[in-house]
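User: quick one, sequence for these C-alpha cells?
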C-alpha cells in the first residue's frame, strides 16, 4: 500500500472513526493496565490463595466473553453508540471503585466490572467503524490500524499499571476513571449526526435486526461463519500457549536467566507485530483474504515446529520461534477481523463481531490444556499437538472458503 494511497484513505476517516480507533487503544490499554497485576494485588493486599485468585479472574473473563456475545446483538437492535456509552460509563465507575476499594468484596466487584468495558466496547466499535467507511479498502486500513493501536495499548497498559497499582498508589486508578469520562464526552461530541431521513432509515434497519433468540437461529444456519469461529478459536488456543504454557515449561526446565528470556520473548512479540504489520499489509494488498489467512496459518505451523524441536536451554531458539509466531500473528489477527466484516450483513455487524468474541474461549482454556499436556507428557509433545491444531485450523478455513454463506442470503 503506497504512502500516498494511505494518506488519501486516512483523510476519509471521519472524526468518529478516529474516536473508535483511539478509544480501542485506550480501552485495551486500561484492561492490560489492570489484568496482569491483579493476582499480585489480590495476594498482597487481600491474602487470597492462588486458587481463589485464579477462580476470580477466570470467572470474570469468561462472563465478559459471553456477555459480549449477547450485547453485540443488543447494539444492533438498540444502537451501537448507546452500547459504547454504557461501556465507558462502566469503565469510569469500575476504575474509580478500584481506586477507593478497601474491602475484598468491593475490590472483587471492581475487578469484574473492569473486565466489561473491553467486551462491551469491542463489537459495537468495530461495527460503527466499518459503518462509517463505505470503501472496502478504507475499512481494511482502519481495521489494521485498530489492531496496531490495540497492540500498542497492550504494551503500554502494563507499564502504567505498574506505576499506578503496584507502587502503593492504588488511588492512581482514579486517573483512568477520569479518562473514561473524557472518552464519554468525545463520544457524545462526535456521535453520528443524522438527518431525519437518515434517522428514519437507521430506525428501520434496527427494527429489522432479529431478537437474540432469532439471531441464534440465523447463526446456526450460517455454516461459513461457524466454521470460521471454530478455526479462529483453534488459532487463539495455539497463540495462547505462549502466554501461559510456554512460561510453565521454561520454569519447570529451570532455564537460566528465565526472567530475561520471558522479557525478551514479550519484547520480540510486540516489536515484530508493530514493525511488520503495515509492510505485510502492503505486500499482501492484492491477495484474497483467504490466502492471507492461509499464509499466516502456514507461518504459525512453522513456529510450532520450531518450538517442538528447539532445545529447552537454547534461549535464542525460543526468541527466533517467537519472532516467527509474531509474524503469523501480524498477518492473521487483523485479517480475521476483515474476514468477519465481509461475512457479516450490514444490519448485524455488531452481532457478528460479538459472536466472534466467543473465539476468546481459546485463550480461556489454553492454560488448562497446556498444563495437562505438560503434566502427562512434555514440552515437545505440547508443541507437536499445537502444530496439529494449527493444521486443523487451516483445514477449517479451507472448508469455509468452499461453502456458501447463508447469512449473506438471509440479509
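Assistant:
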Amino acid at each position: 500500500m503506497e504512502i500516498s494511497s494511505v494518506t488519501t484513505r486516512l483523510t476519509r476517516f471521519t472524526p468518529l472513526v478516529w474516536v473508535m480507533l483511539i478509544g480501542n487503544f485506550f480501552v485495551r490499554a486500561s484492561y492490560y493496565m489492570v489484568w496482569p497485576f491483579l493476582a499480585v494485588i489480590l495476594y498482597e493486599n487481600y491474602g487470597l490463595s492462588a486458587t481463589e485468585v485464579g477462580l476470580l479472574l477466570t470467572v470474570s473473563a469468561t462472563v465478559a466473553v459471553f456477555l459480549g456475545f449477547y450485547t453485540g446483538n443488543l447494539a444492533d437492535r438498540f444502537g451501537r453508540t448507546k452500547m459504547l456509552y454504557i461501556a465507558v460509563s462502566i469503565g469510569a465507575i469500575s476504575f474509580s471503585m478500584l481506586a477507593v476499594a478497601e474491602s475484598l468484596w468491593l475490590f472483587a466487584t471492581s475487578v469484574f466490572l473492569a473486565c466489561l468495558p473491553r467486551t462491551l466496547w469491542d463489537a459495537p466499535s468495530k461495527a460503527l467503524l466499518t459503518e462509517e467507511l463505505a470503501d472496502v479498502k478504507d475499512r481494511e486500513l482502519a481495521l489494521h490500524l485498530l489492531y496496531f493501536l490495540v497492540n500498542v495499548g497492550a504494551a503500554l497498559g502494563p507499564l502504567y499499571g505498574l506505576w499506578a497499582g503496584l507502587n502503593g498508589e492504588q488511588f492512581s486508578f482514579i486517573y483512568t476513571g477520569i479518562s473514561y469520562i473524557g472518552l464519554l464526552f468525545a463520544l457524545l461530541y462526535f456521535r453520528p449526526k443524522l438527518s431525519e431521513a437518515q434517522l428514519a432509515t437507521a430506525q428501520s434497519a434496527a427494527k429489522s435486526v432479529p431478537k437474540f433468540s432469532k439471531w441464534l437461529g440465523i447463526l446456526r444456519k450460517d455454516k461459513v461463519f461457524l466454521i470460521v469461529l471454530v478455526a479462529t478459536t483453534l488459532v487463539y488456543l495455539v497463540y495462547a500457549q505462549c502466554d501461559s504454557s510456554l512460561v510453565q515449561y521454561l520454569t519447570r526446565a529451570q532455564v537460566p536467566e528465565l526472567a530475561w528470556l520471558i522479557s525478551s520473548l514479550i519484547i520480540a512479540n510486540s516489536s515484530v507485530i508493530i514493525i511488520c504489520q503495515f509492510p505485510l499489509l502492503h505486500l499482501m494488498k492484492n491477495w484474497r483474504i483467504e490466502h492471507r489467512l492461509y499464509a499466516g496459518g502456514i507461518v504459525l505451523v512453522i513456529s510450532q515446529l520450531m518450538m517442538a524441536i528447539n532445545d529447552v536451554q537454547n534461549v535464542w531458539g525460543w526468541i527466533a520461534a517467537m519472532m516467527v509466531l509474531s509474524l503469523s500473528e501480524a498477518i492473521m489477527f487483523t485479517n480475521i477481523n476483515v474476514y468477519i466484516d465481509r461475512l457479516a450483513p450490514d444490519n448485524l455487524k455488531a452481532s457478528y463481531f460479538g459472536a466472534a468474541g466467543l473465539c476468546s474461549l481459546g485463550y480461556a482454556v489454553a492454560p488448562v490444556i497446556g498444563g495437562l499436556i505438560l503434566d502427562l507428557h512434555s514440552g515437545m509433545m505440547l508443541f507437536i499437538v499445537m502444530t496439529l491444531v494449527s493444521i486443523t485450523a487451516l483445514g477449517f478455513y479451507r472448508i469455509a472458503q468452499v461453502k456458501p454463506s447463508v447469512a449473506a442470503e438471509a440479509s
